[in-house]
Amino acid sequence: MEELASGDAYEGRQDLGNTQPGDGRRFKGRGYVQITGRSNYAKWSQRLGIDLINNPGLASDPAIAAKILVQGMRDGSFTGVGLSQYINGSKQDFFNARRIVNGTDKASSIAQIAERYLEALRSASTSPTPTPTPTNPGQTPITGYREYVVKKGDFPSIIAQKELGNANRWREILKADNTPLTDFDATRLQIGQKLLLPVSYQSGPGTPVTPTPVATPTPVSSEIGRVSSRVGSVPLNLRSQAQVTSQNRIDTLPVGKEMKILRSVQGGTYSTGNGNRNDWYEVEVNGKRGFVAAFFVDKGSSAPPPPESGFVNSSVGGVPLNLRSSASTNAVSTTKLNQGTNLKILGSVTGGNYSIGNSNRNDWYEVEVNGKRGFVAAYYVTKGTNSGSGGGGSNNGGGNNNAGSTLGIPVDFNSPAYRQNNPLWRAGYAPKSVNPPIYSMSNPNAKGNCTWYANGRLRQLGYSQSDLNQLTADASRWDDRARAAGIPVSNTPQVGAIAQWESNHVAIVERVNPDGTIVISESSYWPTSSNAYDFLYKQRTISASNPTRYIHVRR
């Protein structure tokens, strides 16, 4: 869901808030509505509580894109006109409803699609609408209605299926003011809203006739189960029925979540990745009853395994480890954990792939840090107690003297990171002191080269080789190549980031100081020898505002 064009056409567009170099590409169209421009990304960052400025690619995430679409259409965020102006309880003007997003572009064809959807919904809902007053002397609804409070994940059809035994009976549900739900009401239920559900009917003037209630299944077992790591990075859906549909999800359950298994049932078919199955469990979890696909549940003791101690190890280098909402690098990062941070390991799970050098891994830990639970890549965690003095905080790192700094990791020019594993060394853009196979620089006695060094330093520190393989051109073009490869670029320094100058120079941030300065390490090439800017390696302290920008190569 990302615009195919490069985004260069938006560069410098003040009306979109694109005030900084590279904003055009960085904030090009993404998501279902294709939000565009720094100002729009900033607005939705604030509304959703998600950092889209430093992570603009998140706007293409289907869940986030859906929130932007629904909230924006509802509130008139895109053009100043909201959905209720054209579609409400008294009218459905699908043609002009297109104006809430993008004028009347393709409004006719979109309106025709909407009409077909509406007709399909009406055809599927054929039950008569009740009223609390007599409709005929043969069968009169009595005043037997009971209160129901709308819960998360509820739709009228889901409520009718759970409470009345038939999804099509949702039109018998009344609002709190004793009026029936309309098609419009059905799309705007709010958590906590009170509804009235029918209890019984009276036939003529005689004895009330009560429909047979939907039976509550009698548990045939009370085993404990947990969400298996077989779900990978995707939470398990708790559903109102033993089948997969787009509207019957009640809740989502992360890996390791405990539940009470009430019984086994046969239901709809679902895919496991290795074939299809139709075995389900009816379960109770989080105070809710529902159904889960049995393949993704492990039966076991109700006593969770005791947590193990662990800490963020030195493999992170100078980049904090992400604590994520699920076991995937695409999941939202909820906090940053510096080297040395202590944590509790709650369990091991198999999740999405992450890169370590030239190989991929998918082993993750579910952990708890300072009361927060989440998932971290297992490669960067060592079991046991950190021998440093602390490590309890996500911002302060641990007791390790190098936490928040890579100054304690010495440069090793004999390392393959600066030689055979470095594409700039192989291409001859490295000083003769490291014996490149060819020599391509115009200065025959050059002592250094900034791009060769920056690429090698991050390889030495364990950063993504696939990312670094994209950073091989002139230093002034590294930000463009980074954005094209999806590598984050920002104005915020972090340890391990590449500091870039438009004047064609790059360096590595080794430490961020509290006084607004940073320590960088660098190498430098100059066309002529005996120049102060011709050197192999040095460290220096500069203002954090000195570089033009920062490139954040991923781990």
Sum up the overall morphology in one term: globular
Mean pLDDT reading: 80
What distance lies between the first and last C-alpha atoms, to the nearest angstrom? Answer: 25 Å
By secondary-structure content and strand pairing, the structural class works out as alpha+beta
Unreliable spans are 126-143, 201-220, 388-403
How many E strands? 26
Arrangement of strands in the largest sheet? 21-26-22-23-24-25
Indicate the percent of residues in helices. Answer: 10-25%
Biggest β-sheet: count, sense, barrel? 6 strands, antiparallel
Separate helix tally: 12
Q: Beta fraction of the residues?
A: 25-35%
**Radius of gyration over C-alpha positions, nearest whole angstrom:** 30 Å
